[in-house]
Design a protein that fits this description.
The structure holds three protein chains of three kinds. By secondary structure, chain B is mainly alpha-helical. Chain B contains eleven helices and no strands. Chain B starts with 8 loop residues before the first helix and ends in a 9-residue tail after the last helix. Chain C has one domain: Cytochrome C Oxidase, Chain A (Up-down Bundle), CATH 1.20.210. Helices cover 71% and strands 1% of the residues of chain C. In chain C, strands 1-2 form a two-stranded antiparallel ribbon. Chain C is globular and about 75 Å long.
């Protein structure tokens, strides 16, 4: 399209209900933007799929590796320390995750009572930690270990023990 | 009607010709869809099959119909994204093969409530029973409505049969036996859930809608999780 | 045109051309669609206000199944998209295409079948969706018998549309017609492919595509419903009504050619950006993302052509509320078509997907672009179509300011709420490496103020529509009172 003078009426008005049209050149910045996005699109495809060979799986693996390094996972089961700080932290964890089934006062509900003398899956700190960590699939108790992490499991066990009638 | 200027070529051959405009438009709008969608039907480029993912049982399929009817997907997604934060919250990210028998798909587009892709087995049956009755009793602060009608309405085996038969027509591999035994299967599966609800202190009938919905929710993500653990899924090509 | 002053005869460069054809047009059908537009705007937006209330205050459904958010949200989206926006498109198309092609619609019976068929479809949507009868595909929720009805009505419309083009009295097809044509063709294709279902009962059916194929087909549909139901026909409307309202020539013919073809070609590719970070093959997701970015310029081509057509008329924007509506509409179109590509970028989408940000985004398009442009067209058409003045012209300015305030409250609240969600969901505790906010409801509670603010914005916007409807009703009454002999006997063919 050759450059015409600006604001020249094309003269189809009679064929478009009187609406006239100019044939002004497209704004340069607009044409530039269009080309830029096309170039960018080609560049992105080349970079993502062929140069950097990125993928969600690789991205996720990198995230996981970085997290592993920053927050190393303890291989042992959580330790229970009956300190006031741990118990207080455990209460927060309990109210957020456990209270829905075991009751805000640990009195039980969907899940069993935790302040009576019956301990279905063992009453020692190690047994309580194992129950929380591994869950009880048959009864619908989730495996909280991977969800909470060792530290929180230890804290919530401390809280439960502090409230209950388990031997310390 | 005098033309003020000579017409440009494109005006003569395209913009003044209705049929040409229509055909060009139809071509222009077809390319993208064809390029993106047709490869989905190829075994190589399309979604992978995941060994161990099996169709829903009739009761679970009935529950899924309830999930659709109530529009659960307007607030809950079924798609865990492959990021660490999503995996900490919900579990393994969702693989393509997990959706193989989903007609229709229910990925959702908005999380007013949490993702449900791996909610199966996360809570006891009784938790769901209580949750649908009064969401705030199990999830304080929730904005979910209550669903009292699920506790009185019944699952109709004839409707379930229509569902399962149609799903078979669109490619979900149900065998004749499954279709023949639908009422018995509903009864058997429902009875098991009713028994588990009883331990939580709730009474229900095997053909209550809430029981079917619980059956569906408890199934969500289970096949996929097992298949991923068993290493059945290959990492998709980059 | 003897009894009523013809607004088409307002002085402009083309008055003689218009006067030639006066009297041959079917404006009765335009009036029907006009009335339906205003009616469904009220219904659709009231539903929106109600479901916004449900998120702010959950007991709002009063324990009634038919009023739950899950069942009413699809009715809200269907009512706004297909009832309100659909009817304004048909209003504008039937009005403008007859004039642009200098001929009456090809067949009056088909016009009426189209009108009544479409309204019947909307009524059946209202009678099925609240009862949980849904296909679950977003914006394609309607059950299979209604899908068939849509197909039939759309074919009727298409026959009438192309028939009118075939019998036109001009050679040239004005740019508005191209956009209308893309609307008629593409919606047919999208609707049929995304509704390939096998019926199970009279009210239930299951799609032939499953899993991620179904997802990809649905979002190819869903995205292009936005493109070809809420964008291209509205651009067509803009190309007719904006130059008519400002009485200035369109800025650039060649820009309209380039942006039309690039828009219809590129738009269709962008669907997979709704499925970023899903297990849909990554190459398809990449295509969805890069084509979205390439859409910025073609979309802005429409905005530029609209805004530059206003050159030399900006002083009138200050005084003419109809131009105000148009300028804001076109500006919101420009903003929404920038925000959309932005949200399609993987990294941005990771933050925004699933959140209220998306809700804010679609509403800046729906309220800002579709809503404001529709109001401009309705106000511009009213005196010309019904041959009587607006009784309360000053209310139009009031409507404009109420609506604009409403949109600002809406988009700001959803933007803030969406960022809150996106950031809280992914926040990691620096010391433990675990989720900072593991309890879902904690984030839900944080959203309450944003939901109330959104409700306020939506209510204001709805209030503006009530004001508009009242204005039309009062005007009709006033006209009837002053001219009892002719007020009700406006010629069917204006």
């Amino acid at each position: 399209m050759s450059k015409k003078e600006r604001d020249q009426i094309l003269g189809h008005g009679a064929e478009s209900d009187g609406i006239e049209e100019y044939d002004n050149p497209m704004p340069n910045w607009w044409v530039g933007l269009f080309y830029a996005t096309i170039v960018w699109a080609a560049g992105y495809v080349a970079y993502y799929h062929f140069i950097a060979k990125k993928s969600y799986v690789r991205e996720l693996a990198a995230q996981m590796a970085e997290a592993e390094q920053r927050w190393p996972r303890s291989t042992q089961l959580a330790k229970v320390e009956m300190t006031p700080a741990a118990i207080a932290a455990g209460e927060v964890v309990f109210q957020a995750n456990c209270a829905a089934c075991h009751g805000a006062a640990l009195q039980g509900g969907i899940g069993p009572n935790l302040v009576d003398t019956t301990w279905i899956h063992g009453s020692t700190p190690e047994e309580i930690v194992a129950t929380i960590t591994n869950g009880v699939a048959a009864k619908g108790m989730p495996t909280w270990g991977p969800i909470l992490g060792n530290e929180k499991v230890g804290e919530v066990a401390a809280y439960i023990i502090s409230k209950g009638q388990a031997p310390q | 009607m005098a033309e003020a200027q000579k017409d440009s070529w494109h005006r003569r051959v395209i913009e003044a010709k209705g049929g040409t405009m229509a055909i060009f438009t139809a071509i222009a709008i077809s390319v993208g869809g064809l390029v993106e969608i047709t490869p989905m039907f190829s075994a190589k480029l399309g979604p992978e099959h995941l060994a161990g993912v099996t169709p829903l049982t009739p009761l679970e399929a009935a529950g899924r119909d309830i999930y659709i009817r109530e529009g659960c997907f307007t607030c809950h997604s079924q798609m865990i994204r492959p990021t660490r934060a999503e995996m900490l919250r919900y579990g393994e990210w969702t693989r393509a093969g997990e959706y193989e028998y989903d007609h229709p798909f229910l990925l959702g587009s908005r999380r007013i409530g949490p993702d449900l892709q791996r909610v199966g087995g996360k809570y006891p049956d009784a938790w769901h029973y209580q949750h649908m009755k009064d969401p705030r009793s199990t999830s304080p602060g929730s904005v979910m409505p209550t669903y009292p009608w699920l506790y009185t309405a019944k699952v109709d085996p004839l409707e379930v049969a229509a569902t399962v038969r149609t799903l078979r027509k669109v490619g979900v591999p149900y065998d004749d036996q499954t279709i023949a035994d639908i009422p018995q299967q509903i009864q058997a599966e429902g009875t098991a859930i009713v028994a588990s609800l009883k331990t939580g202190g709730f009474t229900a009938a095997p053909d209550d809608e809430i029981v079917a919905l619980i059956a569906y929710l408890q199934r969500l993500g289970k096949d996929g999780t097992a298949a991923i653990k068993a290493g059945a899924t290959k990492a998709p090509a980059p | 045109m003897a009894t009523v002053p013809s607004p088409d005869a307002t002085p402009s460069q083309a008055a003689p051309a218009r006067a030639l054809s006066a009297g041959v047009y079917d404006d009765a059908i335009v009036k029907l669609f006009f009335t339906a537009t205003v009616t469904w705007a009220l219904v659709g937006m009231l539903l929106g206000v109600f479901i916004a209330l449900e998120l702010a205050w959950w007991p709002a459904n009063a324990g009634i199944a038919q009023l739950t958010f899950g069942r009413l949200r699809p009715l809200h989206t269907n009512a706004v998209i297909f009832a309100f926006c659909g009817n304004i498109c048909f209003t504008g198309i039937y009005y403008s295409m007859q004039r642009l092609l200098k001929t009456r619609m090809w067949n009056d019976t088909l016009s009426r079948l189209h009108f009544w068929g479409w309204q019947l479809i909307i009524v059946s949507a209202a009678l099925t969706l609240p009862f949980g009868l849904t296909q679950s595909h977003e914006y394609a929720e309607l059950i299979w018998p209604i899908d068939w009805a849509i197909t039939i009505v759309w074919v009727i419309f298409a026959i009438n549309f192309f028939g009118t083009i075939a019998v036109r009295k001009v050679d040239h097809l004005y740019v508005a017609i191209w956009f209308y044509m893309s609307f008629v063709i593409t919606i047919a294709v999208l609707h049929i492919v995304n509704n390939l279902q096998i019926p199970a009962t009279l009210t239930r059916s299951y799609p032939v595509f499953g899993g991620l194929t179904d997802a990809l087909v649905q979002w190819w549909y869903g995205h292009n419903a936005v493109a070809f139901f809420l964008t291209t026909p509205f651009l067509g409307l803009m190309y007719y009504f904006l130059p008519r309202a400002v009485e200035k020539p369109v800025y650039s013919y060649r820009l309209s050619i380039i942006h039309f073809w690039s828009l219809v070609f590129l738009y269709i590719w962008a669907g997979p950006h709704h499925l970023l970070y899903s297990a849909v093959p990554e190459w398809a997701q990449t295509l969805g993302m890069v084509f979205s970015i390439m859409l910025i310029a073609p979309s802005w081509g429409g905005m530029i052509n609209g805004l530059l057509t206003l050159r030399g008329a900006w002083d009138r924007v200050r005084t003419d509320p109809i131009l105000k509506f148009m300028v804001v509409a076109v500006s919101f179109y420009g903003m929404a078509t920038f925000e959309g590509p932005l949200l399609s970028i993987r990294a941005v989408n990771a933050l925004g997907h699933y959140t209220n940000w998306i809700i804010g985004h679609v509403h800046s398009g729906a309220l800002g672009w579709n809503g404001m442009l529709s109001f401009a067209i309705l106000y511009w058409l009213y005196p010309r179509l019904f041959g009587r003045p607006l009784a309360k012209p000053e209310w139009v300015t009031t409507h404009f300011w109420i609506a604009t305030t409403g949109i600002v409250l809406y988009t700001v609240s959803m933007w803030a709420g969406g960022l809150t969600e996106g950031l809280f969901w992914r926040a990691i505790d620096a010391t433990t490496g675990q989720l900072r906010y593991p309890v879902w409801a904690y984030v839900v509670e944080k959203l309450a103020p944003f939901y109330w603010m959104r409700l306020a914005g939506g209510t204001l916007f709805f209030g503006g529509v009530v004001l508009m409807a009242l204005n039309f009703i009062i005007s009709a009454r006033a006209a009837r009172a002053t001219t009892p002999a002719t007020g009700d006997v406006l010629p069917a063919r204006a």
